[in-house]
């Protein structure tokens, strides 16, 4: 990770508030996300982690939205072939050249560590893949419009530990090319992957810092120490 003074801001959030009816769930939070970092967002259930992530994905600024890829907790494959799952967004963006689509599909499937498993059956239904393969297909699809930021919302909630580790390896490789924001309930996953970690609690940022600080014996907030050490949450 680059020294703080050399980092390039990819996203700047100022005073974000979110409410569902009269109930405010995010209370004016501000933070930056830097280029080519993995930022993990941790916190207890109902802390508005996913709501915050969806705000980034649902921006009304079309050019920015196209630069963000989103992966949901449960793998959601389109009822199409593996090839067409990945080619769907590029075709919608106007790409028609078969050679260009072929190269893009292969690149995205390789980035998602799925190519070697499916290259002989690209015309097979994506929904027939295993749960772990479908989640990697979802990542490939999210990468297909060449986003600059990839948002992962509890990507490992429905897959086995072995596949989780494979996808974690994918995420670590992707940070060399894009920025990754990772919402996770798994504290150790954040510790393994993230350059920086945000501790979000009841819609407020308790602490955001280098992961080495967050997971040390002396984070700035006692609440952070208690959460990452399993004292509550």
TrEMBL record:
One of its GO terms (cellular component) is membrane. InterPro entries: AAA+_ATPase, ABC_transporter-like_ATP-bd, ABC_transporter-like_CS, P-loop_NTPase, PstB-like. Keywords: ATP-binding, Nucleotide-binding, Transport. Residues 11-227 form the ABC transporter domain. Pfam families: ABC_tran. GO terms for biological process: phosphate ion transmembrane transport. The keyword Mitochondrion does not apply. Gene3D superfamilies: P-loop containing nucleotide triphosphate hydrolases (3.40.50.300). One of its GO terms (molecular function) is ATP binding. This is ATP-binding cassette domain-containing protein. The keyword ATP-binding applies. It comes from Eiseniibacteriota bacterium.
């Amino acid at each position: 990770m680059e020294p703080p003074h050399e980092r390039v801001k990819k996203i700047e959030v100022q005073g974000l508030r979110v409410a569902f009816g009269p109930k405010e769930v995010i209370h004016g939070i501000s933070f930056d996300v830097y280029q080519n970092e993995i930022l993990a967002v941790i916190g207890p259930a109902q802390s508005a982690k996913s709501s915050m992530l969806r705000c980034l994905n649902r921006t009304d600024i079309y050019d920015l939205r196209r630069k963000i890829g989103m992966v949901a907790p449960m793998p959601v494959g389109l009822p199409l072939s593996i090839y067409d799952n990945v080619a769907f967004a590029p075709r919608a963006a106007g790409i028609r050249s078969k050679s260009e689509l072929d190269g893009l599909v292969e690149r995205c499937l390789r980035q998602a560590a799925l190519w070697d498993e499916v290259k002989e059956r690209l015309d097979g239904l994506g929904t027939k893949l295993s749960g772990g393969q479908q989640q990697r297909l979802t990542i490939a699809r999210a990468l297909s419009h060449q986003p600059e930021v990839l948002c992962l919302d509890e990507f490992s909630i429905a897959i086995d530990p072995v596949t989780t580790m494979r996808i974690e390896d994918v995420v670590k490789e992707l940070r060399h090319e894009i920025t990754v924001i990772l919402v996770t309930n798994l504290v150790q996953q954040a510790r393994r992957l993230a350059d920086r970690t945000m501790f979000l609690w009841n819609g407020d940022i308790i602490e955001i810092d280098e992961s080495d600080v967050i997971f040390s014996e002396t984070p700035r907030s006692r609440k952070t120490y208690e959460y990452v050490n399993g004292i509550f949450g």
